[in-house]
Amino acid sequence: MSSFDKNRAIAKAKSLAKSFKAEKAKRFISNYKNAKWYDDFTLLYNMIIDKNFKIDKRVYFTIAGVLAYVVTPIDTIPDFIPITGFVDDMFVIEFFMNSISQEIERYKEYIKTKKY
Fold it and tell me: How is the chain split into domains, by residue range?
């Protein structure tokens, strides 16, 4: 079994981030409002489109990469396969949410103080 290569993962995330399209992610969100991972996906999406929230470039590219991975229908388990098609997507989101939990908490605090 190979070990996790952080630099390779960031490079892959940057590559996926190039294919990230906010409009496509927005449509994706509206199609899956009842999905278990909807709130997590939406939170990540909002973190990178909020122009006033300052975020490290590496975290930004990784979030964009994760979102692009989830939105892309062809991935480790193709999304068109009934029931199991989103298993890998849910795993990726859950794993990533845990890995940047401090950044997510910072964003949640930022939202509380944000004036509309």
Answer: 21-113
